[in-house]
Amino acid sequence: MQYNLFLLAALLGSALAQPAKGSKAYKVPQNPKTLNTHKALPPKPQPEPPVYNPCQSTEVLATKCLGPKDCLYPNPASCGTFIQCVPQDEVGNAKPVVMPCPKGLQWNDGKKWCDYPHLSTCPAKATTKTPANKPVAKPVKRPVKKPVKKKGGKKQGSGGTAQPE
Q1: Residue 154's beta-bridge partner residues?
Q2: N or C: which end of the chain has fewer CB within 10 A?
């Protein structure tokens, strides 16, 4: 009896899987987000790298970092950025936030703004080695042909034409 039930289930299952005569078979679309969910998991969040913290509680408490030049510091990691301290509490703790300079500019800590590279105070300036002073080659003096005197009192130049004396 078990054998007959198994056979019946197998036959019915394959018959049910086939579309009825005259009907069209449709494939059910599958959501790609639900397929292989073990591969679709979001990546684990990575901790942010530590940021250099120059924020001084005395300045944060005194100025509350409200002035346009308060709580701004150079970033030793990059000349094209600076660090702005954002107050976090009433005790003077502040969070350092790396801020970019506009393209081509570098931080000038004396003026507390982004400036042209030759005016910046960035300690990480790239030094270019100037070439050693080499002596400049002197121009070569070429001998000048002197006119040859011919009979008849006329000079003949290098071009072969006779010239009066």
Answers
A1: 164
A2: N
- At a CB cut-off of 8 Å and minimum separation 6, what does 55 contact? 71, 73, 83, 85, 93, 94, 95, 96
Each residue's pLDDT tens digit, 43-64: 778 776 666 778 888 888 888 8
- DSSP strands (E only) in 10-112: 72-74, 81-87, 94-100, 106-108
Helices (H), 18-162: 57-63
| 101 touches 112 (CB < 8 A) | no
| Other Cβ atoms within 10 Å of 14 Cβ, number | 9
Provide the token pair at 156: 């003949």
Domains of the chain by residue range: 50-109
Strand partners, 163: 155
Q: Which of 2-11, 101-110, 123-132, 141-150 has the highest mean pLDDT?
A: 101-110
Closest CA to 110 of 67, 56, 69, 52: 69
Closest CA to 70 of 113, 37, 102: 113
CA gap 157, 149 in Å, rounded: 9
pLDDT at 127: 44
Kindly report the pTM of this predicted structure. Answer: 0.45
pLDDT 10s digits, 15-43: 555 556 666 666 666 666 655 555 667 77
